[in-house]
């Protein structure tokens, strides 16, 4: 019964991950009307699952004396276990084809922290189909070329990838810390992996072309300037420290 319960909990975690749903709520007591997405989905599925319904009943009767598999710690463990399984499958594919490329970009999240995403790209050995997979997301307040290189090496070592011999391509935006010939990320990587060809990200190049084209039209300049001003007004904090957005 415990195996069946865990299988259903894993299905819930995968479903929520695919739909980018938050797991937890503010009040997660069983008596609460809204317990967070994870617990609410557990309750919903228990209506049509005998093992899960029995498990929930035991938790509600025995309280903390019953191993629940549903606490926030167990949720995190399920997420980590599934993430490790996905990473293992990606590593297995790459070790089979022995060739991959990497794309790295940074952006600010809602809390204004710099997030660094690592996208890995490889081709299926049999069909030739190209796959792109999110390998890792890291946070760093410093985004110099050397710092990004150190984070890159840590990710490669954590995933046990032989990047010095099997990395054949790298793609970033046009910022100096990424494409710089001497201190940029691509230069640091090429010192250890000379075959890793650097390609300026075509999406970023297109964005620069569009920006340059739009900047020639005064109406467009006014439009985007007003939108930026409006965004700053809506997003700024009020006197109580609450975001107006």
UniProtKB/TrEMBL annotation:
Top-level taxon of origin: Eukaryota
InterPro entries referenced in this protein's UniProt entry, alphabetically: DUF4371
Protein name (Swiss-Prot/TrEMBL): Zinc finger MYM-type protein 1-like
All copies of domain DUF4371, residue ranges: 9-184
Pfam families: DUF4371 (PF14291)
Gene source species: Sipha flava (yellow sugarcane aphid)
